[in-house]
């Protein structure tokens, strides 16, 4: 459902890679498999979140639904939220194939999703928050704060720049991607920095802290990849 005031950022318009295209959704898992071990990522994340059969999880930018499917096995309900119908179709097909009935697929985004179920024990956003410019990241974090139960966890995995030599880190990352997946992966990485909205780690920290999150851990890898484990605190 679209709910856009005249000044609201239109999160249904894709910047950079167009995940609204079925062709992108089709190649997504294979392409990301060239530089990520998604199964291992999900296992480590879910071990740490330590959800129980009563828990609710909201995954923003759920993509092809691998995290949603893995989480649904240990949760009461997973809300898989994405602005791309093509990605949601892949996620739904996965859930059906795996016989999972406790995932709600929501065609919505960080800025217009309305959470109506029980408050979430955890909210996750893996490689999705960078689709919003910084001001709108802040609005999204304020909304997520309201969706989380007291003491709930927010997990963010994203491409984030550090002070020092960010342009060098980007060049190194592009070449690493080229080594792993040739020109298509290198071009995706270049497009990411040219057209999407990755930001500095200190901006991310400021946004998180100002919107009521205590950062428990900030983990960096490969120069530009970051993971934030955060706890909701009272505002
Ligand atoms: C790079 S994919 C990440 C998919 C998955 N979370 C993963 O870790 O592989 C980014 C996803 O975020 C979605 N997306 C983009 N803007 C969004 C927004 N404002 N709200 C929710 N999802 C969004 C895209 O449609 C796409 O499916």
Tell me what the structure shows.
This protein has 235 residues and is an alpha/beta fold. It has one domain (22-160, 200-232): Vaccinia Virus protein VP39 (Rossmann fold). 42% of the residues lie in helices and 22% in strands. It has helices at 22-33, 38-49, 66-72, 85-97, 134-147, 166-195, 201-210; strands at residues 56-60, 77-82, 103-107, 120-126, 148-159, 213-221, 225-232. The two termini are 29 Å apart. The protein binds S-adenosylmethionine (SAM). S-adenosylmethionine (SAM) binds at residues 11, 19, 32, 60-63, 81-84, 87, 109-110, 126-128, 131-132.
- Classified by CATH, the class is Alpha Beta
The SS-based structural class is alpha/beta
- Element pattern in H and E: HHEHEHEEHEHHEE
Distance between the termini: 29 Å
Number of domains: 1
Overall residue-averaged pLDDT value: 97
Which oligomeric form is depicted? single chain
Spatially, the strands of the biggest sheet line up as 3-2-1-4-5-7-6
CATH architecture: 3-Layer(aba) Sandwich
Overview in brief:
This is Class I SAM-dependent methyltransferase. The chain is 42% helix and 22% strand. With 235 residues, the protein is of the alpha/beta class.
Map the helices and strands:
Elements: H1 22-33, H2 38-49, E1 56-60, H3 66-72, E2 77-82, H4 85-97, E3 103-107, E4 120-126, H5 134-147, E5 148-159, H6 166-195, H7 201-210, E6 213-221, E7 225-232
Parallel strand pairs: 1-2, 1-4, 2-3, 4-5
Antiparallel strand pairs: 5-7, 6-7
Bound molecules: S-adenosylmethionine.
S-adenosylmethionine (SAM) is lined by residues 11, 19, 32, 60-63, 81-84, 87, 109-110, 126-128, 131-132.
